[in-house]
């Protein structure tokens, strides 16, 4: 420690590890959001149903949060290599703040989406299907996807996304605190 702050070598290592973690978390979150959208939500979201609109908005926000998390990770990696430029420090400060806030919003939106889905027992997810017998649904031409596992698959993907958002919040805040220390703005 140098006068209450980490030395530059420690900043480099921590920023590099944090940046790599953010890159991985961001990419996994992006893939999870794409899977949820591609397999279910593209068929479900309609302007007439508030719950399905919430699903679509939350999923879109999750993808945006993933892109912010990836950008934050790239900036952290760049800053770990080049500690000098103040513009890079300010960029990481703003990206990490935006990433942590967006991940928090997505986390709350996902909790609401999971609660709504559990509350309506997946009826909104199965709304595009006109099926009287779920066992016959995969062979039915009236359903744009296989409804037999859509409920559990969507909830599982949302749970994974929830964990990724929480991890993104933690490491984005870590980047924020490191950058504040680098800018000598921390107490």
TrEMBL record:
GO cellular component: membrane
Membrane-topology descriptor: Multi-pass membrane protein
UniProt KW keywords: Membrane, Transmembrane, Transmembrane helix
UniProt keyword annotation of Iron present: no
Listed transmembrane segments: 20-40, 60-79, 91-116, 155-177
The keyword Transmembrane is annotated on this UniProt entry: yes
Subcellular location: Membrane
Database matches in InterPro entries: Beta-casein-like (IPR020977)
First and last residue of the signal peptide: none
Name of a matching Pfam family: BCLP
Family, per entry: Belongs to the TMEM54 family.
Annotated protein name in UniProt: TMM54 protein
The species this protein was found in: Falcunculus frontatus
Lineage: Eukaryota, Metazoa, Chordata, Craniata, Vertebrata
